[in-house]
Design a protein that fits this description.
There is one protein chain. Helix content is 43%, strand content 15%. By secondary structure, it is α/β, with parallel strands linked by helices. It has one domain: Rossmann fold, CATH 3.40.50.720. It has a 7-stranded parallel β-sheet, sandwiched between helices. Helix 2 runs parallel beside helix 3. The N and C termini lie far apart (49 Å). The model has no long low-confidence stretch (mean pLDDT 95). It binds NADPH dihydro-nicotinamide-adenine-dinucleotide phosphate.
Length: 246
């Protein structure tokens, strides 16, 4: 009997990766997975630390000087950023009629303006290198809408327009820009919801379970990989089917 060996997958090209919000939740999971795959990984944090084997850089994405300093440090220690994962995000949930300007501004400043600032800073060295991967962490609610999350949902759908415009501007330079839209993932952000609410969500998910951090990290790893070189401007849902149909 003869066996046909399938060709071995090529080893991933090690890249310099910067993940924002790498102290907890999804960002931490992305940093861990990318480091385990052999990439040079830096992660920003405000409080707390980052996983072992990852360069921790303290930076608040709402502060332009801190973002600049973070890039300078990563460039000095690991080289120019080739993969940017704009993950840092917050919620300030309340109904429209109760939402203050401050609730709106805080969420937009972190989730959307922060991502813009990071992408702008990352772009120039990527253009020079004629290679870059920009991955923006959005949310299923950016497309579905969500009662009580006018600010958050607007910031998350804003990322789609941001990424697709960057994809058009920089595609000819070998730079891709894609969006990952997680559904309901078990992290600190969702831990505040009661068991009843969680069960209600789970019942609407075709795959019948909440997402794990690594479900999202795997999608990010794919979009950052050589194999995804012809994927740009995509919105990749990682939501167990929760948002399908849009
Ligand atoms: P967590 O609340 O668990 O973690 C948020 C991370 O973002 C922390 O590392 C936090 O740092 C960091 N962060 C927040 N504000 C800033 C800031 N101004 N500057 C720098 N870092 C900041 O959230 P998740 O892991 O759940 O969420 C990660 C991303 O995924 C977010 O963009 C979120 O919107 C998105 N998402 C999450 C879903 C979920 O179900 N969990 C679903 C869909 C999308 P620090 O520890 O210092 O506060």
């Amino acid at each position: 009997m003869t066996t046909t060996a399938s060709p071995a997958a090529p080893a991933p090209t090690p890249r310099t990766v910067l993940v924002t919000g790498g102290s907890r939740g999804i960002g931490r999971g992305i940093a861990e997975r990318m480091a385990a795959s052999g990439h040079r990984v830096a992660a920003t944090y405000r409080s707390g630390g980052v996983p072992e084997g990852v360069l921790g850089v303290q930076a608040d994405v709402t502060d332009g000087e801190q973002v600049e300093a973070a890039f300078a440090r990563v460039e000095a220690e690991l080289g120019p950023v080739e993969v940017l994962v704009a993950n840092a995000g917050i919620t300030r949930d309340t109904l429209l009629m109760r939402m203050t300007d401050e609730d709106w501004d805080a969420v937009l400043a972190t989730n959307l303006t922060g991502a813009f600032r990071l992408a702008r800073r990352a772009a120039r060295p990527m253009v020079r290198a004629r290679f870059g991967r920009l991955v923006f962490i959005s949310s299923v609610v950016g497309q579905l809408g969500s009662a009580g999350q006018v600010n958050y949902a607007a910031s998350k759908s804003g990322l789609v327009g941001l990424a697709r415009s960057v994809a058009r501007e920089l595609g000819s330079r070998g730079i891709t820009a894609n969006v990952v839209a997680p559904g309901f993932v078990e992290t600190d952000m969702t831990a505040e919801l009661g068991e009843e609410t969680v069960q209600k969500y789970a019942a609407q998910i075709p795959l019948g379970r909440l997402g794990a951090v690594d479900d999202v990290a795997a999608a990010v790893e794919f979009l950052a990989s050589d194999a995804a070189g012809y994927v740009t401007g995509a919105l990749l849902p990682v939501d167990g089917g929760l948002g399908m149909g849009h």
